[in-house]
Amino acid sequence: MHARMTAIIHQRTCLVLGLVCLATILARTLWAAEPVRVVVAGPMVGTSYAVGVQYQVGVNAALKTLPDGILLDRPVEVSLYDDNCKDTIAESVAREIVENPPAVVIGHSCSGATIAAAPIYAEHGVLEITPASTNPKVTEMGISTIFRMIGRDDLQGKLAAERIATRYNGRRIGVISFHGAYSRGLAAAAVEALKGYGISPVIHVQDVKGTQPSYIDKIEIIMAAELDVLYLVGGGTDCAVFLRQARQLGADFDVVGSDTLVSEVFLQAAGPAAEGVPFTFPPDAATLSTAAPAVEAIEALGHEPVGYTLLAYAALQVWIEGVRRSQSFDAGRVAASIRQGPITTILGDVAFDAKGDITTQSPPFAWYMWKDGQRVAAD
Length: 379
Fold this sequence. Notes:
- This protein is of the alpha/beta class.
- Helices cover about 45% and strands about 20% of the residues.
- The chain has 12 helices and 15 strands.
- The chain has helices spanning about 1-35, 50-65, 85-95, 110-125, 155-170, 180-195, 215-225, 235-250, 265-270, 290-300, 310-325, 330-340, and strands at about 35-40, 70, 75-80, 105, 125-130, 145-150, 175-180, 205-210, 230-235, 255, 280, 345, 350, 365-370, 375.
- A 6-stranded mixed β-sheet has the order 2-3-1-4-5-6, sandwiched between helices. Strands 8-7-9-10 form a 4-stranded parallel β-sheet, sandwiched between helices. It has a 3-stranded antiparallel β-sheet with strand order 11-14-15.
- Strand 14 (about 365-370) and strand 15 form a beta hairpin.
């Protein structure tokens, strides 16, 4: 009798232990299968939609570098959020995103949108890496979990001022900037830098309302100033419409643009008026040998490595390496790991300062122009 009871107890003990082991295995399996979210936030519709497409393509191509899409034993999934490049929408979108906090946000694009959303992400422990926002304020808000993959407008503005001062010194110079943090900040940086050359614009038209069908009233004001060159700062579509209409009205002043003119939306909307207009943009990473695998992956998705595509790709690389270094998805730990030292990306080895500004992309901007529908280096 005693032996029988012992056998029964032993069987039950084994059964219980087996169930515990099974439950543990199932729990681990479920945990391992729980996806980690990457959010891509930017303009998915509207006049700047091309940037949103570039973000999506770059991030999805970079994800293919993860074996089976797994990072720290968890599958990585991508969610898309549209901010239409508007501050108020970006703030609302950010609040929606943090209801189910992702591990990282690759975004936003327009500086005003990034500035509006960043404090919300920081408050909820979400890392943010922007491939395109250039306004200095993005990294001047004291947020330790934000990084940018592109140079700042104070640098871009200095470069524009240098070109204008060198080529148009003693001539009539004007500036026009559309509404928004990006345009306002970059135009101000250029005007300030021009002062260093002893130059003051004869006209500075500020805060022009965007997405309008006609800018003829502004064009007439600028034409009346008899300019030799105009520094044009705004969204790609707005700049395209302005420039096309200016040429149709017979405006013959030269135009110098900024990084938003890299968009093919600008090229298409401006038509022949886009030809030969110089603009600033980070050096073309597609020509780097380190970017060859990324270019191949992007082309395999049916796209070209244009605009901000490769910067978005590199942004995800930075996050992946930060996660691997820290062995964590915690925003603070990942951010600290990113700052530990250079990270190998398709752009080369990149590093960031305490504010989150990239320090290793040199030069931060170069000159390009559209020629026969292709982006080429400008003298």
